[in-house]
Amino acid sequence: MLIEYVFSVEGVEGRNIELQCPITVPLSQVYMVLWFKDNAGIPLYSVDVRDKISRQPAHWSAPEVFGSRAKFNIDKSPASLLIKNLKRHDQGVYRCRIDFRTIQTQTYRYNLSVIVLPEQPVVLDRWGRHINGTKLGPKEEGDDVVITCRVSGGRPQPEVRWLINGVIVDDQYEQNSGDVIENRLLWPTIQRSDLNAIFTCQTMNTKLVEPKETSYVLDMHLKPLTIKVINPPSTLVADKRYEIVCQSTGSRPNAIITWYKGKRQMRRTKDEILDHNTTTSALSFAPTTEDDGKTLTCRAENPNVNGLFLETDWKMNVVYPPMVSIQLGPTLVVDDIKEGDDVYFECHVRANPDWKKLQWFHNDILLQYNGSARIIQSGQSLVLQKVTKQSAGYYACSAINAEGETVSDQQYLRVKRKCEV
Known about the structure:
421 residues; mainly beta; Immunoglobulin-like; five-stranded mixed sheet
């Protein structure tokens, strides 16, 4: 009577597999161990144990089947046939028969399926071009990612799926032609948070080995997120040199920073990259009195992201000593002033901060308000009533603010006698 045990096993092409053929009695009770394939009546491997007492068991492997790729380990428990470098044509039904000296023959039958692994996945862009390297992009915010994973070969038919950061997002694939399987992924409207996301095409047709994968890291061009002038001074002193720092974050690659005064670009700058998305720019300049009230603009832009930039404005408060000038009243004719005429001067002042005190001088002597002498100061005007010859001479005015005092140029007053022609 024949005792037979039947098993189904899977092996992977190119790997090793062991088919067990347990021997449950002492080897002295074993006569022969024979391996057959399919319905062949001739063994492809044999172990002769009939004369083990005087010599080692005799092994034979059919060279046209396994040859040196197979080895039966009779001393192992359980005994097994090791098949190295499995070939796809090794698939079939194998039978191990153990003939004993005194007990019934035992048979172990294996239905061996050989798994043929698929090729390494390749990834194509939306135009069907192969994507080289390990980067996807660079893309911009709002773009769609459209990529196709293509896998050739494999038995049984492999699964093809997309993972993002290790999470399956698309496992719908279709057979293209022949043994080619494709999975087209549409990942719409990518965001800043998708930067450095890992897109992985994975294929597998067995759990005996790890899936084959091809991965890409998403690269993105990002617009600046912030821009600001760092601790700008509340006031600037005219003609003193300053270094003003502007900082931008969030741009990839780092932002390019430009400075403008009004519409004119400022060139004397020094840029520094602090980290992968922070850039500073230091502007060195000496403001003039004409810059008071004007606006400095710091602009950050990523030239790889069309039309998108950030900017911040800073209105300058430039302080300076008064700028003073004196002028004879516009209704007067400088060469036609006679004794008894009324004369007035105007003192024109431009200052930041505003002037606090205004003074008048006659021949470098400070003039005081004197109603009886008919010298009247009113606002920024000096009025001389009914001038005399003694009123002639050099007049000047001065203005004082927190930045200092400035005296105007002198204006000469000539007074004619009434009888002068």
